[in-house]
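Q: My labmate handed me this sequence with no annotations at all. I'd like to see what the chain might look like in three dimensions before we decide whether it's worth expressing. Could you predict it?
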Amino acid sequence: MGVELGIIEGFYGRPWSWDEREATVAFLAPHGYRFYLYAPKADPYLRRRWQEDHPRDIADGLARLAGRCAELGVRFGVGLSPYELFRGFDQAAREALARKLGFLDSVGVRDLAILFDDMHGDVPGLAERQVEIAHWAAARTMADRVLVCPTYYTDDPVLDRVFDPRPDGYVEQLGALLDPRIEIFWTGEEVCSRELSPGHLRRVTEQLRRKPFLWDNYPVNDGQRMSQYVHVRGFTGRPASLAGHLAAHGVNPALQSTLTCIPALTLVESYARGDEYEYLAATLRAARQVMGDELGRRLYEDVLVLQDVGLDRLGEKEQLLRDRWTGVDHPAAREIIAWLDGAYRITEEIVQTQ
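A: Here is what I predict for the chain of 354 residues:
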């Protein structure tokens, strides 16, 4: 395959259950998915309330998931978003960060990701402050891989509109100052990139002074608009030639854990088949692997409606979908019905508060 693949659970909205996480890891591991990064926006103890201890039930769940990943030969990691810590990295903040790092060590974290996304960048010396925090954490964690998500992790100007204009030379400064052993996340030309090219990745590699660690925002569907759709179509715009230009390829999955496995399998096929890859044929094969021949074919027939029409524009197609999937004893079928019922809807309030 030529590139390390993994899942980054990094979406807004209703998080996966522990059973769903373990089932996803167990299904994808034999197909080449080698890491799992736990970073759901719904875990406040990794984000706005990061200085507080995780409740015991979540801590136990993390330890069990880490153990299951280890059994399957999958690296387990956690994404920590120390909310705007770079505005005041004082002694109290350092003590809080040390406690959190100790907790993550205790549950068996191998990959530690320090995430500075979703934070305002109107701070003098932003890159230098973030590098200081990353180096401080890297010196104190037992994780054997450390990763950083920049505040500006894409060329997409939407980040400048939402989180203040990026400082001049921010990406280059981050790349120059950060220890070369620390990986840097990048999503591509857009937050949700339609395609990625070797030329773009070569340019970003020069800026970061290392190959980018791809945070791929497909098939994620966690925005107010995107939650109207279920992304089950096979990967496109990710040619196999990307492999030599990436440190690794992490997939931010859909809210529907079982259905996520369909596009996830097609990414494996895309890297394996190269120029012979056909995304629709791969979608059908993956659907059959995930759901069995009959249900996989049925799902394939519904790809256009699930992915392109939109929940609020289904019209009479909604009842057709309900007739096809109600009562079907398969988790993917239950996910489709839950989506029709509005269980996965994302509001702007959810995005603003998680």
